[in-house]
Amino acid sequence: MSNYWAIAVGINHYQFLQPLHFAQTDAQFLCESLVSNAGFLPEQCVLMTDTSPDFADHSSDPTAENLRYWTTVLQDKLQPEDGLWYFFSGYGVCVDGEDYLLPIDADISRIQDRGFSVRSLFQTLKTLPTQKIFVLLDINRSASVSHEKVGTQTVAIARKAGIPTMLSCRPEQFSHEAPALNHGLFTQALLEGLRSHQCSTLATLEDFLRDRLPELCDHHDLPIQDPILVVSDPEQLYRVIMPVNWAETESWVPAPTNPFSVEGDLYLNALESEPESRYEFQPTVMGATTTEIPDNLVLNPAEYDPIEYQPTEYEPIQADLTLPEDADQPAPTPTISPIPEEPDLPDQMFWERLLFGGSAVLLVLLLGVLFRNWSAFMGGQQQTANQNPATPEVAASPAAAIDSAKILNEARSFIKPTLASDANRAIERARAIPPSDPLYAQAQQDIDRWSRNILEIARKRAEQKEFQQAISAAQLVPKDRPQVYAEAQKAIQQWRKAR
Question: How far, in Å, CA of 262 to CA of 457, rounded?
Answer without folding.
Answer: 14
